[in-house]
């Protein structure tokens, strides 16, 4: 699409140069256009004839101009070469510069964040220190995430690539928005997944080996404020945090559960083809 637009622009510029450099061509084009569009009070049939005649005159004038231009180019090669260079140079320079496009019409409309790229390609971030177990045993936490006290929060069980992306999200949530993030569950065994599945679809819709948790490619997170774990989206502050969390997570290539039909605001995962169900098939 861009190449076609550049080529069309080149043709327009060349035609404009012909009109400016060759007065005869300019006069013929003007006469042809005048003959084609001057209708007055003539009947519609005569208008059609005149337009057709004007079009043929226009084509003939272009042909004559090109022939004259060819003779001019043969007689003045240096001058013609310089003029051609002036015409095509801007286009060639624009095509040779490999910078990100100002407008991106691809299917992926996410903005490229330079800070995120640097963090992902830089040194490996270190997981935050673990919180005391009692943080995960409050009535609020138990109501929203039952049995979460027995969940794994061991960062070493997570896929290395996924872990780095999640740590970048945690870092940016703190630096940009002032939210301290907490991992409440990372790796989940197939047995634990099966137990949660048995509790009903309001807990999870994925059976054993059908969740990215089993492969260290998913995590559930919440917020830490004033010494307490804030997990419920009913808290406006937490809901705003989940929205920001989802935006940053998607920028680093993760899938956010807040966009699902069964919304899971604290959940993110790194999807890979052929992973789900792999252990069960072995």
TrEMBL record:
Protein name: M15 family metallopeptidase
Pfam families, A to Z: Peptidase_M15_4
Keyword Membrane attributed: yes
Organism superkingdom: Bacteria
Transmembrane segments annotated in the record for this chain: 6-22, 29-49, 78-97
Keywords, sorted A to Z: Membrane, Transmembrane, Transmembrane helix
Domain Peptidase M15C: 207-270
InterPro entries in alphabetical order: Peptidase_M15C (IPR039561), Zn_M74/Hedgehog-like (IPR009045)
Coiled-coil stretches noted in the UniProt entry, renumbered to this chain: none
């Amino acid at each position: 699409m861009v190449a076609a637009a550049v080529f069309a622009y080149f043709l327009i510029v060349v035609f404009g140069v012909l009109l400016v450099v060759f007065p005869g061509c300019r006069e013929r084009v003007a006469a042809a256009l005048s003959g084609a569009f001057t209708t007055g009070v003539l009947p519609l049939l005569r208008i059609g004839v005149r337009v057709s005649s004007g079009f043929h005159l226009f084509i003939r004038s272009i042909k004559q101009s090109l022939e004259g231009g060819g003779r001019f180019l043969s007689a003045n090669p240096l001058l013609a070469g310089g003029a051609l260079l002036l015409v095509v140079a801007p286009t060639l320079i624009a095509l040779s510069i490999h910078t990100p496009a100002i407008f991106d019409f691809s299917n992926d409309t996410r903005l490229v964040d330079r800070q995120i790229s640097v963090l992902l390609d830089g040194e490996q971030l270190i997981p935050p220190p673990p919180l005391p177990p009692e943080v995960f045993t409050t009535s609020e936490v138990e109501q929203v995430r039952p049995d979460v006290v027995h969940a794994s929060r061991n960062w070493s069980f997570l896929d290395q690539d996924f872990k780095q992306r999640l740590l970048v999200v945690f870092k940016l949530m703190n630096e940009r928005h002032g939210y301290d993030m907490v991992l409440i569950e990372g790796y989940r065994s197939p047995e634990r997944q099966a137990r949660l599945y048995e509790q009903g679809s309001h807990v999870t819709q994925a059976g054993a080996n059908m969740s990215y948790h089993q492969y260290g490619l998913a995590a559930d997170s919440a917020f830490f404020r004033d010494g307490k774990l804030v997990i419920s989206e009913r808290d406006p502050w937490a809901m705003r945090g989940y929205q920001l969390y989802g935006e940053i997570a998607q920028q680093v290539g993760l899938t956010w559960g807040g966009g699902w039909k069964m919304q899971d605001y604290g959940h993110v995962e790194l999807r890979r083809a052929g992973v789900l169900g792999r252990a069960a098939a072995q």
